[in-house]
Amino acid sequence: MAASLRAGSLLLNNGTMSGSTTAVRCSSTEAPSIVRVAAIAGSLRKGSVHQGLIRAAIEVSKDIPGLEVEHVKIDKLPFLNTDLEVNGRFPDEVEEFRASIQKADSILFASPEYNYSMTAPLKNAIDWASRSPNCWADKPATIISAGGGFGGGRSQYHLRQVGVFVDLHFLNKPELFVKAFEPPAKFDAQGNVIHEETKQRIKSLLIALQNWTLRLNNDGSGKL
Ligand SMILES: Cc1cc2nc3c(=O)[nH]c(=O)nc-3n(C[C@H](O)[C@H](O)[C@H](O)COP(=O)(O)O)c2cc1C
């Protein structure tokens, strides 16, 4: 990412900048600012609605200039066991996962609620990438979840707590909790999002994450 951003300015969805002082437009001679988002689903099952939420995020991101969402899979990661770290090297699947997190500008978690918390596969992935050097450090992040009455909200708040120690910077608002079991239907049998309003809310969340990422990286270096 190679755009120079003024302090307090935000990249809008139409490619313009707005800030607390004068609004400016990115010069056409500058390289486009691409925010690369690594999206992680905490459920491994085939018909997972959380994987469906990520597919929807990828779909709607195509209408957001300067944003790319990549689904980073966690199903091949072994259970964390520090005995698997040999001579400073992690198992190949872990190295690959860590590299995907390291190269991302920000993180989108699709975090199911299991017994009032996040899932074991998601916590396992977070723990692997937290091993030194911590791949999460200083990354902006946000969460989507779907579930019962609270739409998976309790998993989100546990995840935010873990984010304090691994040094993620979670977006405060908007929050997105999808009530998966209440009408109208939000998902089909394969876990695809079929509810237009949910797609629009995912889009708003991604735009807010994009702005948050640019704002946090606005250190004058011109780099993400
Ligand atoms: C072990 C287990 C515990 C669960 N606990 C909760 C819970 O505490 N709160 C909730 O809203 N849903 C709970 N659920 C339901 C899941 O959150 C729900 O089925 C969700 O759709 C799973 O995500 P997925 O479709 O991406 O796999 C639980 C499901 C399982 C398998």
Automatic annotation (TrEMBL):
It is an enzyme of class 1 (oxidoreductase). It catalyses: a quinone + NADH + H(+) = a quinol + NAD(+); a quinone + NADPH + H(+) = a quinol + NADP(+). Keywords: Flavoprotein, FMN, NAD, NADP, Oxidoreductase. GO terms for molecular function: FMN binding; NAD(P)H dehydrogenase (quinone) activity. Pfam families: FMN_red. Signal peptide: none annotated. Its cofactor is FMN. Its EC number is 1.6.5.2. Residues 36-179 form the NADPH-dependent FMN reductase-like domain. GO terms for cellular component: cytosol. InterPro entries: Flavoprotein-like_sf, FMN_Rdtase-like_dom, NAD(P)H-dep_reductase. Homotetramer. The enzyme apparently serves as a quinone reductase in connection with conjugation reactions of hydroquinones involved in detoxification pathways. Belongs to the SsuE family. This is NAD(P)H dehydrogenase (quinone). It comes from Ceratopteris richardii. The lineage of its organism: Eukaryota, Viridiplantae, Streptophyta, Embryophyta, Tracheophyta.
